[in-house]
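Hi Y.,

Following your request, here is the sequence exactly as I used it, all 436 residues.
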Amino acid sequence: MLVIIFCIILLILLVSWAKVNPFLAFLIVSIAAGLCLGIPLGKISGSIQKGLGDTLGSLAVIICLGAMLGKLVASSGAAQKIADVLVNAFGIKYIQLALVAAAFIIGIPLFYGIGFVLMVPLIFSVTYKYKLPAVYIGLPMLSALSVTHGFLPPHPSPSALVVIFHANMGLTLLYGLIIAIPAVIIAGPVFAQFLKKIPSAPLATFRAEELPADKLPGAFNSFFTALLPVLLLGITAAFPFIGNAKDDLHKVIAFIGDPSIVMLIALIIGTYTLGVKQHKSMGHLSIIYGDAIKDISLILLIIGGSGAFKQVLTDSGISNEIASGLQSFNLQPLFLGWLIAAIIRISLGSATVAGLTAAGIVSAMVIKDPGINPNLMVLSIGAGSLAFSHVNDSGFWLYKEYFNLTIKDTILSWSLMETIVAFVGLGGVLLLNVFI
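Below is the corresponding structure, written out as tokens. Let me know if you'd prefer a different format.
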């Protein structure tokens, strides 16, 4: 634990005080962590490469295609049109709540990374046009995405935990919704009231000049194109429950339902609906897409660097040592599961690793003891796996770089928001356990 604390402090000092590029800082700290934690010299570079590859392998295509679609949505005026429709429907006073509700609905079928890159242009369009604080408007939306990612099936970690604990997917989703709604409200709109003064100059790629009303795409076209990934993922997620899941049509649908393929299809269709149909040449659209990639290239490297650091910590076996040490304490099982997941999350940075590691430790206890509700254990560990995201988590850097914040302000907003979600989630689980 001392080594982990030292490495985290070193990373913060390198980035904030010494002004070292975050990607280089991650490489330096990853090597230092590997040496201090006893990983053989010949395996440290392998851990770094694996962490980079695994993290970017799952996110690079989604983030790049999402940035292209986001840039198109912004530059075409679609984001401006969506913002106008929402403001006209709900008014400036309630726009934050409207965006939170939209993010919560979108977040249920979408992976966090896709939801993030799709919602960011909308957040920035609203904040630029109506001169609203970006963090105040944006963080509640991201809290909704984070809660759905950590608590609710069909997201990967909650779904895996349901299988491990032999829980009921439907009941877990129902209980998760009961807990998720107050968690989003408290960590989102309520907490954001204290964040209005945080300065933020969001990523330039989503800053589009305001267009006159007659130059904007139609409302249906704007909403349809921006939300097409949500529609595609929702349809493909429901399709396996219809008919024979082993036939060729289901295999094709499963292929189309892959997040990377969904984003590619959405971008191709968006190229027509918001590009060619709006009388933009393919040459002009190529410039837009190229600019989007340039703007997020450093973000990709930083996220990859955080993955390298996480992998070095994982390969050192520190997560198992932490979990084994905590297991000897005589604690309420639901709280123990939450605590193990939270400490591993804070140490390693990965919510998925924290959740699955904690599940592996307490699974035998849950299966043997009929008094432990497996559905609530899924939610307890899911809540713990979101606790205090900081410099070793790729989500921390995604938020920091897109919103162009300092590390201090990112911790005061993002990290505290995630921690509030974790504690509210725990409170909800323990309260439900009294009545169920």
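The mean pLDDT is 85.

Thanks again,
Q.
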